[in-house]
Design goal:
The chain is an alpha+beta fold. Helices cover 17% and strands 26% of the residues. The strands form two sheets. A three-stranded mixed beta sheet has the order 1-2-3. It has a two-stranded antiparallel ribbon with strand order 4-5.
Length: 92
């Protein structure tokens, strides 16, 4: 939980919409205290995680997942998709 909170600290999730959220930098817990962080996650977060005993792994060696999001609107649906992966958001 501490890792997730530290990674999300720079972002105000209340202001992100379905189209913006998939653009956030990604992280992946590997095993034990090893985590991979995408490059946009800055030095303050990396330093804080390292101080907590986590090991930051080179992100270029790790596969990250993608994200798609769909939101129900009063007159239909809207979708957003992670531009770093193939795929799309679709609903009916």
């Amino acid at each position: 939980m501490v890792v997730t909170l530290k990674l999300l600290e720079p972002y105000d999730l209340r202001t992100l919409g379905h189209n913006s959220a998939p653009y956030l930098p990604r992280f992946r817990h590997l095993d034990g205290r090893r985590v991979a962080l995408e490059a946009p996650i800055g030095d303050p977060v990396r330093s804080a995680l390292t101080a907590l005993g986590h090991v930051i792994v080179d992100e270029r060696t790790v596969a990250f997942g993608g994200a798609q999001a769909i939101i129900h609107l009063p007159r239909g649906y809207a979708g957003g998709s992670d531009p770093r992966k193939d795929g799309l958001a679709a609903g009916y």
